[in-house]
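pls ignore typos typing on phone
6-O-phosphono-beta-D-glucopyranose + seq
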Amino acid sequence: MCGIVGYLGKKEALPLVIDGLKYLEYRGYDSAGVAVHSGKKIEIVKAVGKINDLEQKLEQASGKGTCAIGHTRWATHGKPCLKNSHPHQNTDGNIVLVHNGIIENYGGLKIKLEEEGVVFKSETDTEVLVQLIGRYYDGDLAKAVIAALREVTGTYAIAVLAKDRPNEIVIAKKSAPLCIGIGKGENFFGSDAIAFIKHTNKVVYLKDGEVAVLTPKTVLIKNLQGKKVSYKVNNLSLDPSSIEKGEYPHFMLKEIYEQPRAIQDTLDGRISPQNDEVILTELDKYQEYLLGINKILIVACGTSWHAGLVAEYILEKHARIPVEVDYAAEFRYRFPVLDEKTLVLTISQSGETADTIAAIGEAQALGAKVLSIVNVPASTIARDSDMVIYTYAGREIGVASTKAFTTQLIVLSLFAVYLGRLHHSLDDAAASAILQNLKRVPNEIAKVFNEAKNIKKIAKAFHKHSNALYLGRGVGFPIALEGALKLKEISYIHAEGYPAAEMKHGPIALIDENMPTVVLAFKGRRYEKILGNIMEVKARKGKLIVIASESNDGIKRIADWVIHIPDASESISAILAVVPLQLLAYYIAVEKGCSVDQPRNLAKSVTVE
Ligand code: BG6
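k done
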Protein backbone atom coordinates (compact mmCIF):
# COMPACT_ATOMS: atom_id res chain seq x y z
CA MET A 1 0.00 0.00 0.00
CA CYS A 2 1.38 3.24 -1.13
CA GLY A 3 0.98 6.71 0.29
CA ILE A 4 -0.22 9.68 -1.74
CA VAL A 5 -0.23 13.36 -0.75
CA GLY A 6 -0.72 16.73 -2.40
CA TYR A 7 -1.02 20.48 -1.95
CA LEU A 8 -2.26 23.50 -3.80
CA GLY A 9 -2.35 27.05 -2.54
CA LYS A 10 -0.05 30.08 -2.28
CA LYS A 11 3.03 28.41 -0.77
CA GLU A 12 5.79 26.48 -2.58
CA ALA A 13 4.19 23.02 -2.80
CA LEU A 14 7.28 20.78 -3.00
CA PRO A 15 8.57 21.10 0.61
CA LEU A 16 5.04 20.48 1.93
CA VAL A 17 4.60 17.39 -0.25
CA ILE A 18 8.03 15.97 0.66
CA ASP A 19 7.29 16.52 4.35
CA GLY A 20 3.93 14.78 3.93
CA LEU A 21 5.57 11.84 2.14
CA LYS A 22 7.94 11.37 5.06
CA TYR A 23 4.96 10.88 7.38
CA LEU A 24 3.44 8.41 4.91
CA GLU A 25 6.61 6.35 4.46
CA TYR A 26 5.26 3.71 6.89
CA ARG A 27 2.95 2.77 4.01
CA GLY A 28 5.73 1.70 1.63
CA TYR A 29 9.27 2.65 0.72
CA ASP A 30 10.21 0.88 -2.55
CA SER A 31 10.33 4.16 -4.53
CA ALA A 32 9.03 7.72 -4.37
CA GLY A 33 8.15 10.54 -6.72
CA VAL A 34 6.58 13.95 -7.11
CA ALA A 35 4.96 16.03 -9.87
CA VAL A 36 5.07 19.82 -9.47
CA HIS A 37 2.89 22.09 -11.63
CA SER A 38 4.79 25.33 -12.29
CA GLY A 39 1.73 26.90 -13.90
CA LYS A 40 3.06 26.17 -17.36
CA LYS A 41 4.48 22.68 -17.14
CA ILE A 42 4.51 19.64 -14.90
CA GLU A 43 7.95 18.57 -13.60
CA ILE A 44 8.21 14.93 -12.54
CA VAL A 45 11.05 13.61 -10.35
CA LYS A 46 11.19 9.96 -9.18
CA ALA A 47 13.70 7.83 -7.30
CA VAL A 48 14.00 4.19 -6.28
CA GLY A 49 14.24 3.76 -2.51
CA LYS A 50 13.26 6.11 0.28
CA ILE A 51 12.22 9.78 0.42
CA ASN A 52 15.83 10.69 1.22
CA ASP A 53 16.86 9.25 -2.16
CA LEU A 54 14.18 11.38 -3.83
CA GLU A 55 15.35 14.50 -1.98
CA GLN A 56 18.88 13.98 -3.32
CA LYS A 57 17.54 13.79 -6.89
CA LEU A 58 15.43 16.92 -6.31
CA GLU A 59 18.60 18.91 -5.66
CA GLN A 60 19.07 18.85 -9.48
CA ALA A 61 15.46 19.84 -10.19
CA SER A 62 13.67 23.24 -10.13
CA GLY A 63 10.57 21.98 -8.29
CA LYS A 64 9.02 25.43 -8.45
CA GLY A 65 5.21 25.66 -8.22
CA THR A 66 2.30 26.00 -5.79
CA CYS A 67 0.57 22.80 -6.85
CA ALA A 68 2.09 19.32 -6.45
CA ILE A 69 1.30 15.65 -5.84
CA GLY A 70 3.57 12.95 -4.37
CA HIS A 71 3.78 9.19 -3.92
CA THR A 72 5.67 6.65 -1.84
CA ARG A 73 5.42 3.11 -3.20
CA TRP A 74 4.90 -0.42 -1.93
CA ALA A 75 5.27 -2.48 -5.09
CA THR A 76 2.38 -4.68 -6.16
CA HIS A 77 2.54 -4.76 -9.97
CA GLY A 78 6.07 -4.37 -11.37
CA LYS A 79 9.29 -4.58 -9.39
CA PRO A 80 10.70 -1.57 -7.53
CA CYS A 81 12.52 0.37 -10.28
CA LEU A 82 12.43 3.85 -11.83
CA LYS A 83 10.02 3.12 -14.69
CA ASN A 84 7.50 1.55 -12.31
CA SER A 85 7.74 4.45 -9.85
CA HIS A 86 4.92 6.97 -9.62
CA PRO A 87 3.83 9.56 -10.82
CA HIS A 88 2.83 8.04 -14.17
CA GLN A 89 1.75 10.11 -17.18
CA ASN A 90 -0.16 9.39 -20.36
CA THR A 91 1.48 9.17 -23.78
CA ASP A 92 1.42 12.93 -24.56
CA GLY A 93 2.31 13.82 -20.98
CA ASN A 94 -0.59 16.21 -20.30
CA ILE A 95 -2.14 13.95 -17.61
CA VAL A 96 -0.13 12.91 -14.54
CA LEU A 97 -1.31 10.53 -11.79
CA VAL A 98 -0.34 8.90 -8.50
CA HIS A 99 -2.21 5.82 -7.26
CA ASN A 100 -2.53 3.67 -4.16
CA GLY A 101 -4.37 0.38 -4.76
CA ILE A 102 -4.72 -2.23 -7.51
CA ILE A 103 -6.56 -1.91 -10.86
CA GLU A 104 -7.72 -5.53 -11.04
CA ASN A 105 -8.90 -5.49 -14.68
CA TYR A 106 -5.81 -3.67 -15.96
CA GLY A 107 -4.73 -6.66 -18.08
CA GLY A 108 -7.75 -6.54 -20.41
CA LEU A 109 -7.75 -2.74 -20.58
CA LYS A 110 -4.02 -2.71 -21.39
CA ILE A 111 -4.49 -5.05 -24.36
CA LYS A 112 -7.37 -2.88 -25.66
CA LEU A 113 -5.28 0.29 -25.34
CA GLU A 114 -2.23 -1.36 -26.97
CA GLU A 115 -4.46 -2.41 -29.90
CA GLU A 116 -5.38 1.28 -30.18
CA GLY A 117 -1.65 2.14 -30.40
CA VAL A 118 -0.82 3.07 -26.81
CA VAL A 119 2.78 2.16 -25.90
CA PHE A 120 3.27 1.42 -22.20
CA LYS A 121 6.47 2.47 -20.41
CA SER A 122 5.99 0.53 -17.17
CA GLU A 123 4.80 -2.86 -15.86
CA THR A 124 2.28 -1.23 -13.56
CA ASP A 125 -1.50 -1.50 -13.44
CA THR A 126 -1.58 2.22 -12.68
CA GLU A 127 -0.32 3.34 -16.11
CA VAL A 128 -3.48 1.86 -17.67
CA LEU A 129 -5.59 4.31 -15.63
CA VAL A 130 -3.64 7.43 -16.63
CA GLN A 131 -3.78 6.38 -20.28
CA LEU A 132 -7.57 5.92 -19.96
CA ILE A 133 -8.01 9.37 -18.37
CA GLY A 134 -5.88 10.84 -21.14
CA ARG A 135 -8.16 9.10 -23.61
CA TYR A 136 -11.28 10.85 -22.19
CA TYR A 137 -9.69 14.22 -21.49
CA ASP A 138 -11.27 17.16 -23.35
CA GLY A 139 -10.38 19.96 -20.93
CA ASP A 140 -12.67 18.81 -18.07
CA LEU A 141 -10.40 16.76 -15.81
CA ALA A 142 -13.06 15.59 -13.34
CA LYS A 143 -15.26 14.35 -16.20
CA ALA A 144 -12.34 12.43 -17.73
CA VAL A 145 -11.43 10.86 -14.38
CA ILE A 146 -15.04 9.78 -13.79
CA ALA A 147 -15.31 8.29 -17.28
CA ALA A 148 -12.09 6.29 -16.77
CA LEU A 149 -13.02 5.10 -13.27
CA ARG A 150 -16.28 3.73 -14.57
CA GLU A 151 -14.22 1.29 -16.67
CA VAL A 152 -11.93 -0.01 -13.94
CA THR A 153 -12.45 -2.58 -11.17
CA GLY A 154 -10.29 -2.86 -8.05
CA THR A 155 -9.14 -0.43 -5.40
CA TYR A 156 -7.81 3.06 -5.77
CA ALA A 157 -6.91 6.31 -4.09
CA ILE A 158 -5.68 8.56 -6.89
CA ALA A 159 -4.64 12.14 -7.55
CA VAL A 160 -4.51 13.59 -11.05
CA LEU A 161 -3.01 16.71 -12.61
CA ALA A 162 -3.54 18.14 -16.10
CA LYS A 163 -0.93 20.33 -17.75
CA ASP A 164 -3.49 22.91 -18.90
CA ARG A 165 -5.24 23.13 -15.49
CA PRO A 166 -2.46 24.48 -13.21
CA ASN A 167 -4.61 25.22 -10.15
CA GLU A 168 -6.58 22.02 -9.93
CA ILE A 169 -6.06 18.53 -8.53
CA VAL A 170 -8.69 15.81 -8.99
CA ILE A 171 -8.66 12.98 -6.44
CA ALA A 172 -10.86 9.89 -6.08
CA LYS A 173 -11.20 6.86 -3.82
CA LYS A 174 -12.53 3.30 -3.68
CA SER A 175 -11.51 0.87 -0.91
CA ALA A 176 -8.31 2.76 -0.14
CA PRO A 177 -8.03 5.55 2.44
CA LEU A 178 -8.01 9.18 1.24
CA CYS A 179 -8.81 12.43 3.06
CA ILE A 180 -8.71 16.17 2.36
CA GLY A 181 -7.15 18.82 4.62
CA ILE A 182 -8.98 22.12 4.30
CA GLY A 183 -6.81 25.19 4.85
CA LYS A 184 -7.25 28.96 4.42
CA GLY A 185 -6.71 29.67 0.70
CA GLU A 186 -4.96 26.29 0.40
CA ASN A 187 -5.95 22.63 0.38
CA PHE A 188 -4.15 19.35 1.07
CA PHE A 189 -5.00 15.68 0.59
CA GLY A 190 -3.37 12.49 1.83
CA SER A 191 -3.76 8.74 2.35
CA ASP A 192 -3.62 9.63 6.05
CA ALA A 193 -4.27 12.97 7.77
CA ILE A 194 -0.85 12.65 9.39
CA ALA A 195 0.58 13.91 6.06
CA PHE A 196 -0.85 17.41 6.57
CA ILE A 197 -2.13 17.55 10.17
CA LYS A 198 0.64 20.00 11.10
CA HIS A 199 -1.00 22.54 8.73
CA THR A 200 -4.74 21.95 9.24
CA ASN A 201 -6.90 19.72 11.42
CA LYS A 202 -10.02 20.29 9.28
CA VAL A 203 -10.34 16.89 7.63
CA VAL A 204 -12.86 15.50 5.13
CA TYR A 205 -12.85 11.71 4.71
CA LEU A 206 -13.68 10.86 1.09
CA LYS A 207 -16.18 8.00 0.74
CA ASP A 208 -15.95 5.12 -1.73
CA GLY A 209 -17.02 6.20 -5.23
CA GLU A 210 -16.41 9.91 -4.57
CA VAL A 211 -14.33 12.22 -6.78
CA ALA A 212 -13.13 15.59 -5.44
CA VAL A 213 -12.01 18.62 -7.43
CA LEU A 214 -9.56 20.67 -5.36
CA THR A 215 -8.50 24.23 -6.11
CA PRO A 216 -6.65 26.50 -3.65
CA LYS A 217 -9.93 27.95 -2.37
CA THR A 218 -12.57 25.31 -3.12
CA VAL A 219 -13.44 21.64 -2.58
CA LEU A 220 -16.14 20.14 -4.80
CA ILE A 221 -17.12 16.50 -4.32
CA LYS A 222 -19.03 14.50 -6.92
CA ASN A 223 -20.18 10.88 -7.21
CA LEU A 224 -19.42 8.64 -10.19
CA GLN A 225 -22.60 9.89 -11.86
CA GLY A 226 -21.02 13.35 -11.84
CA LYS A 227 -23.58 14.60 -9.29
CA LYS A 228 -22.41 17.03 -6.57
CA VAL A 229 -22.49 15.48 -3.05
CA SER A 230 -22.23 17.15 0.37
CA TYR A 231 -19.41 16.43 2.83
CA LYS A 232 -18.64 16.64 6.57
CA VAL A 233 -15.58 18.43 7.96
CA ASN A 234 -14.08 16.70 11.03
CA ASN A 235 -11.81 18.55 13.48
CA LEU A 236 -9.00 16.10 14.16
CA SER A 237 -6.78 16.46 17.22
CA LEU A 238 -3.28 15.02 17.01
CA ASP A 239 -0.39 15.68 19.36
CA PRO A 240 2.50 16.52 16.99
CA SER A 241 5.05 14.97 19.42
CA SER A 242 3.33 11.60 18.88
CA ILE A 243 4.69 11.63 15.35
CA GLU A 244 8.26 12.48 16.34
CA LYS A 245 10.91 10.02 17.66
CA GLY A 246 12.01 12.36 20.46
CA GLU A 247 15.19 11.04 22.12
CA TYR A 248 14.67 7.48 20.86
CA PRO A 249 16.76 6.10 17.97
CA HIS A 250 13.70 4.34 16.52
CA PHE A 251 9.90 4.72 16.67
CA MET A 252 9.69 1.02 17.61
CA LEU A 253 11.76 1.52 20.80
CA LYS A 254 9.80 4.69 21.66
CA GLU A 255 6.53 2.78 21.19
CA ILE A 256 7.75 -0.14 23.34
CA TYR A 257 8.55 2.30 26.16
CA GLU A 258 5.19 4.07 25.69
CA GLN A 259 3.28 0.91 26.64
CA PRO A 260 2.69 1.79 30.34
CA ARG A 261 1.14 5.12 29.28
CA ALA A 262 -0.76 3.57 26.35
CA ILE A 263 -2.23 0.87 28.59
CA GLN A 264 -3.16 3.41 31.28
CA ASP A 265 -4.93 5.56 28.68
CA THR A 266 -6.76 2.48 27.37
CA LEU A 267 -7.86 1.47 30.89
CA ASP A 268 -8.87 4.97 32.04
CA GLY A 269 -12.58 5.32 32.72
CA ARG A 270 -13.32 1.70 31.79
CA ILE A 271 -13.23 0.07 35.27
CA SER A 272 -15.80 1.05 37.92
CA PRO A 273 -14.33 2.59 41.11
CA GLN A 274 -15.39 -0.60 42.98
CA ASN A 275 -13.34 -2.62 40.49
CA ASP A 276 -16.19 -5.00 39.75
CA GLU A 277 -17.69 -3.63 36.55
CA VAL A 278 -16.33 -2.83 33.11
CA ILE A 279 -17.61 0.43 31.59
CA LEU A 280 -17.89 0.24 27.81
CA THR A 281 -20.54 2.84 27.04
CA GLU A 282 -19.91 2.33 23.31
CA LEU A 283 -21.73 -1.02 23.73
CA ASP A 284 -24.68 0.22 25.78
CA LYS A 285 -27.20 0.21 22.94
CA TYR A 286 -26.11 -3.27 21.89
CA GLN A 287 -26.48 -4.99 25.29
CA GLU A 288 -29.58 -6.90 24.24
CA TYR A 289 -27.86 -8.08 21.07
CA LEU A 290 -24.71 -9.10 23.01
CA LEU A 291 -26.88 -11.00 25.49
CA GLY A 292 -28.33 -13.05 22.62
CA ILE A 293 -25.11 -14.07 20.88
CA ASN A 294 -24.12 -17.75 20.90
CA LYS A 295 -20.84 -17.57 18.93
CA ILE A 296 -17.95 -15.16 18.47
CA LEU A 297 -15.90 -15.16 15.28
CA ILE A 298 -12.66 -13.19 15.50
CA VAL A 299 -11.03 -12.05 12.25
CA ALA A 300 -7.81 -10.07 11.87
CA CYS A 301 -4.36 -10.02 10.27
CA GLY A 302 -0.75 -10.11 11.44
CA THR A 303 -0.14 -9.09 15.04
CA SER A 304 -3.83 -8.31 15.50
CA TRP A 305 -4.59 -11.94 14.63
CA HIS A 306 -2.32 -13.01 17.49
CA ALA A 307 -4.35 -10.78 19.82
CA GLY A 308 -7.41 -12.64 18.53
CA LEU A 309 -5.85 -15.96 19.52
CA VAL A 310 -5.27 -14.67 23.07
CA ALA A 311 -8.90 -13.49 23.10
CA GLU A 312 -10.12 -17.00 22.28
CA TYR A 313 -8.68 -18.26 25.57
CA ILE A 314 -9.97 -15.43 27.76
CA LEU A 315 -13.41 -15.04 26.13
CA GLU A 316 -14.21 -18.76 26.34
CA LYS A 317 -12.90 -18.85 29.94
CA HIS A 318 -14.79 -15.80 31.27
CA ALA A 319 -17.84 -15.50 28.97
CA ARG A 320 -18.33 -19.23 28.21
CA ILE A 321 -19.20 -18.47 24.58
CA PRO A 322 -17.60 -20.54 21.76
CA VAL A 323 -14.95 -18.55 19.87
CA GLU A 324 -13.36 -19.16 16.47
CA VAL A 325 -10.36 -17.17 15.21
CA ASP A 326 -9.64 -16.71 11.51
CA TYR A 327 -7.29 -14.84 9.22
CA ALA A 328 -9.44 -12.12 7.65
CA ALA A 329 -8.62 -13.13 4.06
CA GLU A 330 -9.39 -16.81 4.75
CA PHE A 331 -12.66 -15.92 6.50
CA ARG A 332 -13.65 -13.80 3.52
CA TYR A 333 -13.58 -16.68 1.05
CA ARG A 334 -14.40 -19.79 3.10
CA PHE A 335 -18.22 -19.63 3.34
CA PRO A 336 -18.20 -19.19 7.14
CA VAL A 337 -21.17 -20.49 9.15
CA LEU A 338 -22.67 -17.53 10.96
CA ASP A 339 -25.98 -15.80 11.53
CA GLU A 340 -27.55 -12.91 13.45
CA LYS A 341 -26.60 -14.62 16.75
CA THR A 342 -22.93 -14.53 15.79
CA LEU A 343 -20.77 -11.60 16.87
CA VAL A 344 -17.93 -10.96 14.45
CA LEU A 345 -15.07 -9.29 16.32
CA THR A 346 -12.38 -7.66 14.21
CA ILE A 347 -9.09 -6.32 15.53
CA SER A 348 -6.96 -3.78 13.68
CA GLN A 349 -4.35 -1.22 14.66
CA SER A 350 -4.63 0.89 11.51
CA GLY A 351 -8.31 0.33 10.79
CA GLU A 352 -7.34 0.28 7.10
CA THR A 353 -6.32 -3.34 6.44
CA ALA A 354 -8.13 -4.31 3.24
CA ASP A 355 -8.58 -8.00 4.13
CA THR A 356 -10.24 -7.06 7.42
CA ILE A 357 -12.42 -4.40 5.78
CA ALA A 358 -13.62 -6.98 3.25
CA ALA A 359 -14.31 -9.49 6.04
CA ILE A 360 -16.52 -6.93 7.77
CA GLY A 361 -18.58 -6.50 4.61
CA GLU A 362 -18.91 -10.28 4.30
CA ALA A 363 -19.98 -10.71 7.93
CA GLN A 364 -22.59 -7.96 7.74
CA ALA A 365 -23.91 -9.40 4.48
CA LEU A 366 -24.39 -12.71 6.30
CA GLY A 367 -26.43 -11.01 9.05
CA ALA A 368 -23.85 -10.75 11.83
CA LYS A 369 -23.09 -7.59 13.76
CA VAL A 370 -19.47 -6.44 13.80
CA LEU A 371 -17.60 -5.15 16.82
CA SER A 372 -14.16 -3.78 16.00
CA ILE A 373 -11.22 -2.99 18.25
CA VAL A 374 -9.30 -0.24 16.47
CA ASN A 375 -6.46 2.14 17.30
CA VAL A 376 -6.86 4.80 14.59
CA PRO A 377 -9.90 7.08 15.13
CA ALA A 378 -12.33 7.55 12.26
CA SER A 379 -10.52 4.90 10.18
CA THR A 380 -12.43 2.86 7.59
CA ILE A 381 -12.91 -0.15 9.90
CA ALA A 382 -14.18 2.15 12.67
CA ARG A 383 -16.61 3.76 10.25
CA ASP A 384 -17.83 0.46 8.71
CA SER A 385 -18.37 -1.47 11.99
CA ASP A 386 -21.59 -1.62 14.07
CA MET A 387 -19.68 -1.18 17.34
CA VAL A 388 -16.17 0.14 17.97
CA ILE A 389 -13.96 -0.01 21.04
CA TYR A 390 -10.84 2.12 20.66
CA THR A 391 -7.44 1.26 22.02
CA TYR A 392 -5.62 4.45 23.07
CA ALA A 393 -2.08 3.47 22.13
CA GLY A 394 -1.64 6.76 20.23
CA ARG A 395 -0.20 6.79 16.76
CA GLU A 396 1.95 3.72 16.03
CA ILE A 397 4.55 4.45 13.36
CA GLY A 398 7.03 1.58 13.67
CA VAL A 399 5.91 -1.03 11.09
CA ALA A 400 6.22 -3.83 13.65
CA SER A 401 3.28 -3.43 16.02
CA THR A 402 4.07 -3.22 19.75
CA LYS A 403 1.98 -0.87 21.96
CA ALA A 404 -1.12 -1.46 19.78
CA PHE A 405 -0.84 -5.19 20.54
CA THR A 406 -0.67 -4.84 24.33
CA THR A 407 -3.52 -2.31 24.34
CA GLN A 408 -5.55 -4.74 22.20
CA LEU A 409 -4.98 -7.43 24.87
CA ILE A 410 -6.18 -4.97 27.52
CA VAL A 411 -9.39 -4.15 25.62
CA LEU A 412 -10.02 -7.85 24.91
CA SER A 413 -9.57 -8.63 28.62
CA LEU A 414 -12.03 -5.84 29.53
CA PHE A 415 -14.50 -7.12 26.93
CA ALA A 416 -14.20 -10.69 28.26
CA VAL A 417 -15.13 -9.49 31.75
CA TYR A 418 -17.92 -7.27 30.33
CA LEU A 419 -19.41 -10.22 28.41
CA GLY A 420 -18.87 -12.62 31.32
CA ARG A 421 -20.83 -10.27 33.57
CA LEU A 422 -23.57 -9.80 30.98
CA HIS A 423 -23.93 -13.58 30.51
CA HIS A 424 -23.67 -14.23 34.28
CA SER A 425 -20.73 -16.57 33.76
CA LEU A 426 -18.36 -14.46 35.89
CA ASP A 427 -19.11 -13.63 39.52
CA ASP A 428 -18.23 -10.41 41.36
CA ALA A 429 -15.11 -11.77 43.06
CA ALA A 430 -13.62 -13.25 39.89
CA ALA A 431 -14.41 -10.11 37.89
CA SER A 432 -12.93 -7.88 40.56
CA ALA A 433 -9.74 -9.96 40.76
CA ILE A 434 -9.20 -9.74 36.97
CA LEU A 435 -9.86 -5.99 36.90
CA GLN A 436 -7.51 -5.26 39.82
CA ASN A 437 -4.82 -7.29 38.05
CA LEU A 438 -5.36 -5.33 34.84
CA LYS A 439 -4.92 -2.08 36.72
CA ARG A 440 -1.46 -3.20 37.83
CA VAL A 441 -0.21 -3.87 34.30
CA PRO A 442 1.22 -0.38 33.51
CA ASN A 443 3.53 -0.47 36.58
CA GLU A 444 4.47 -4.08 36.01
CA ILE A 445 5.44 -3.41 32.40
CA ALA A 446 7.64 -0.56 33.63
CA LYS A 447 9.45 -3.13 35.83
CA VAL A 448 10.11 -5.35 32.79
CA PHE A 449 12.19 -2.51 31.29
CA ASN A 450 14.77 -3.23 34.04
CA GLU A 451 15.64 -6.33 32.01
CA ALA A 452 16.65 -4.26 28.95
CA LYS A 453 20.41 -4.56 29.65
CA ASN A 454 20.12 -8.34 30.07
CA ILE A 455 18.07 -8.61 26.84
CA LYS A 456 20.66 -6.56 24.95
CA LYS A 457 23.34 -9.09 26.01
CA ILE A 458 21.17 -11.97 24.80
CA ALA A 459 20.66 -10.17 21.49
CA LYS A 460 24.41 -9.78 21.09
CA ALA A 461 24.84 -13.52 21.70
CA PHE A 462 22.16 -14.57 19.23
CA HIS A 463 22.03 -12.00 16.38
CA LYS A 464 24.13 -14.15 14.07
CA HIS A 465 21.76 -17.12 14.18
CA SER A 466 19.48 -17.69 11.17
CA ASN A 467 16.68 -19.59 12.89
CA ALA A 468 14.80 -19.50 16.19
CA LEU A 469 11.96 -21.36 17.87
CA TYR A 470 9.42 -19.81 20.25
CA LEU A 471 7.37 -22.06 22.55
CA GLY A 472 4.43 -21.37 24.86
CA ARG A 473 1.42 -23.10 26.37
CA GLY A 474 -2.14 -21.77 26.70
CA VAL A 475 -2.18 -17.98 26.27
CA GLY A 476 1.61 -18.29 26.09
CA PHE A 477 1.25 -19.90 22.63
CA PRO A 478 -0.10 -16.83 20.77
CA ILE A 479 2.55 -14.75 22.59
CA ALA A 480 5.21 -17.15 21.29
CA LEU A 481 3.77 -16.62 17.79
CA GLU A 482 3.97 -12.85 18.31
CA GLY A 483 7.58 -13.06 19.56
CA ALA A 484 8.53 -15.08 16.46
CA LEU A 485 6.73 -12.62 14.20
CA LYS A 486 8.57 -9.64 15.73
CA LEU A 487 11.93 -11.33 15.07
CA LYS A 488 10.95 -12.19 11.47
CA GLU A 489 9.54 -8.74 10.74
CA ILE A 490 12.53 -6.64 11.74
CA SER A 491 15.64 -8.88 11.76
CA TYR A 492 14.71 -11.19 8.85
CA ILE A 493 15.74 -14.23 10.98
CA HIS A 494 13.45 -17.19 10.29
CA ALA A 495 11.48 -17.94 13.46
CA GLU A 496 8.52 -20.15 14.33
CA GLY A 497 6.12 -20.03 17.24
CA TYR A 498 4.66 -23.32 18.42
CA PRO A 499 2.50 -24.71 21.20
CA ALA A 500 5.23 -26.23 23.43
CA ALA A 501 3.55 -29.64 23.63
CA GLU A 502 3.30 -29.74 19.84
CA MET A 503 7.09 -29.40 19.59
CA LYS A 504 7.47 -33.14 20.19
CA HIS A 505 5.41 -33.86 17.06
CA GLY A 506 7.86 -32.33 14.58
CA PRO A 507 9.80 -29.13 15.32
CA ILE A 508 11.96 -30.94 17.90
CA ALA A 509 13.81 -32.28 14.83
CA LEU A 510 15.16 -28.74 14.31
CA ILE A 511 16.75 -28.52 17.75
CA ASP A 512 20.52 -28.63 18.19
CA GLU A 513 23.19 -26.34 19.66
CA ASN A 514 22.54 -23.84 16.81
CA MET A 515 18.82 -23.45 17.43
CA PRO A 516 17.98 -20.74 19.98
CA THR A 517 14.68 -21.65 21.65
CA VAL A 518 12.69 -18.99 23.47
CA VAL A 519 10.28 -20.50 26.01
CA LEU A 520 7.48 -18.71 27.84
CA ALA A 521 7.46 -20.38 31.25
CA PHE A 522 5.51 -18.18 33.56
CA LYS A 523 3.84 -19.38 36.75
CA GLY A 524 0.45 -21.10 36.33
CA ARG A 525 -1.27 -24.48 36.07
CA ARG A 526 0.80 -25.32 32.96
CA TYR A 527 4.24 -24.61 34.52
CA GLU A 528 5.24 -28.22 35.23
CA LYS A 529 4.32 -29.23 31.69
CA ILE A 530 6.35 -26.43 30.11
CA LEU A 531 9.30 -27.33 32.35
CA GLY A 532 9.15 -30.79 30.77
CA ASN A 533 9.39 -29.20 27.32
CA ILE A 534 12.36 -27.12 28.46
CA MET A 535 14.11 -30.31 29.57
CA GLU A 536 13.36 -31.92 26.17
CA VAL A 537 15.07 -28.96 24.40
CA LYS A 538 17.98 -29.10 26.83
CA ALA A 539 18.39 -32.83 26.21
CA ARG A 540 19.03 -31.98 22.53
CA LYS A 541 21.61 -29.26 23.38
CA GLY A 542 19.14 -26.51 22.30
CA LYS A 543 20.13 -23.00 23.52
CA LEU A 544 17.40 -21.90 25.96
CA ILE A 545 16.16 -18.35 26.55
CA VAL A 546 13.41 -18.58 29.16
CA ILE A 547 10.86 -15.88 30.07
CA ALA A 548 10.08 -16.75 33.69
CA SER A 549 8.13 -15.30 36.63
CA GLU A 550 10.43 -13.35 38.94
CA SER A 551 9.91 -15.68 41.91
CA ASN A 552 11.24 -18.55 39.79
CA ASP A 553 14.95 -18.51 40.54
CA GLY A 554 15.52 -22.23 40.03
CA ILE A 555 15.11 -21.94 36.28
CA LYS A 556 18.54 -20.26 36.12
CA ARG A 557 20.11 -23.67 36.72
CA ILE A 558 18.48 -25.06 33.55
CA ALA A 559 18.25 -22.20 31.02
CA ASP A 560 21.17 -20.53 29.20
CA TRP A 561 19.48 -17.15 29.60
CA VAL A 562 16.58 -16.05 31.81
CA ILE A 563 14.44 -12.94 31.48
CA HIS A 564 12.22 -12.32 34.50
CA ILE A 565 8.77 -10.72 34.45
CA PRO A 566 6.76 -9.79 37.59
CA ASP A 567 4.70 -12.61 39.12
CA ALA A 568 1.12 -12.43 37.85
CA SER A 569 -1.83 -14.57 36.71
CA GLU A 570 -1.38 -16.45 33.42
CA SER A 571 -3.37 -13.99 31.32
CA ILE A 572 -1.56 -10.98 32.80
CA SER A 573 1.81 -12.76 32.42
CA ALA A 574 1.02 -13.15 28.72
CA ILE A 575 0.72 -9.34 28.38
CA LEU A 576 3.93 -8.76 30.37
CA ALA A 577 5.88 -11.49 28.54
CA VAL A 578 5.46 -9.94 25.08
CA VAL A 579 7.51 -6.88 26.11
CA PRO A 580 10.86 -8.74 26.50
CA LEU A 581 10.12 -10.47 23.18
CA GLN A 582 9.63 -7.07 21.52
CA LEU A 583 12.91 -5.84 23.04
CA LEU A 584 14.79 -9.02 22.07
CA ALA A 585 13.71 -8.69 18.43
CA TYR A 586 14.54 -4.98 18.53
CA TYR A 587 18.07 -5.38 19.91
CA ILE A 588 18.83 -8.28 17.53
CA ALA A 589 17.68 -6.14 14.57
CA VAL A 590 19.82 -3.23 15.80
CA GLU A 591 22.82 -5.56 16.20
CA LYS A 592 22.26 -6.66 12.58
CA GLY A 593 21.97 -3.04 11.41
CA CYS A 594 18.46 -3.61 10.01
CA SER A 595 16.04 -0.78 9.18
CA VAL A 596 13.97 -1.32 12.33
CA ASP A 597 11.13 1.13 11.66
CA GLN A 598 10.84 0.34 7.97
CA PRO A 599 11.73 -3.32 7.51
CA ARG A 600 12.08 -4.53 3.92
CA ASN A 601 8.98 -5.60 2.02
CA LEU A 602 6.62 -4.63 4.86
CA ALA A 603 4.25 -1.76 5.41
CA LYS A 604 2.26 -0.54 8.40
CA SER A 605 -1.14 -1.28 6.93
CA VAL A 606 -1.97 -3.33 3.87
CA THR A 607 -4.72 -1.54 1.95
CA VAL A 608 -4.84 -4.00 -0.93
CA GLU A 609 -6.22 -7.56 -0.81
C1 BG6 B 1 0.85 -5.50 8.64
C2 BG6 B 1 1.67 -4.78 9.69
O1 BG6 B 1 0.97 -4.84 7.44
O2 BG6 B 1 -0.53 -5.54 9.03
C3 BG6 B 1 1.53 -5.54 10.99
O3 BG6 B 1 3.04 -4.75 9.28
C4 BG6 B 1 0.05 -5.63 11.38
O4 BG6 B 1 2.25 -4.89 12.01
C5 BG6 B 1 -0.81 -6.19 10.26
O5 BG6 B 1 -0.08 -6.44 12.50
C6 BG6 B 1 -2.29 -5.99 10.56
O6 BG6 B 1 -2.55 -4.61 10.59
P1 BG6 B 1 -3.76 -3.95 11.40
O7 BG6 B 1 -3.53 -2.49 11.24
O8 BG6 B 1 -5.01 -4.41 10.74
O9 BG6 B 1 -3.66 -4.39 12.82
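The chain has two domains: 3-241, 251-592. The pocket of 6-O-phosphono-beta-D-glucopyranose is lined by residues 301-304, 348-350, 353, 356, 399-401, 602-606 (CB under 6 Å). more later
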